[in-house]
Request: fold
Amino acid sequence: MTSTSRPSPLAPEIAARLKRTPDGLLPAIAQQYDTGEVLMLGWMDDEALHRTLTTGRCTYWSRSRGEYWVKGDTSGHVQWVRSVALDCDADTVLVKVDQVGAACHTGARTCFDADVLLRDGDHGVPGSGQ
Reply:
């Protein structure tokens, strides 16, 4: 778990606006900057967001491993940061990136293409018989 007791490395005007989960995290959506393709969702604390803003590479907090990871350090599938924005509630970060290779740990381009629950043109509620 991240530490929320230490001072934030972010600029005070940014840190003050963020609405974090109780464990100090923000969901971070990675989107391909030129096509709009949604690639993945990761988690950032203040340190991960600071690193993302200052290095030009996406840094996330791994909830399962309890450590920071820079996308692409082990896989070579780097996310080069093009822009970073907060949503209207300041509780989610949108990081527009230039994705090199697969974004998903499964090797797929995106984490959102394998288990589609509803496709364009589908009608009714799946499993309801409508």
User: Anything to note?
Assistant: Residues 46-55 form the longest helix (10 residues). The CA atoms of residues 27 and 106 lie 20 Å apart. The first strand starts at residue 26 and ends at 32. The beta strands are 26-32, 38-44, 59-62, 67-70, 79-86, 93-99.
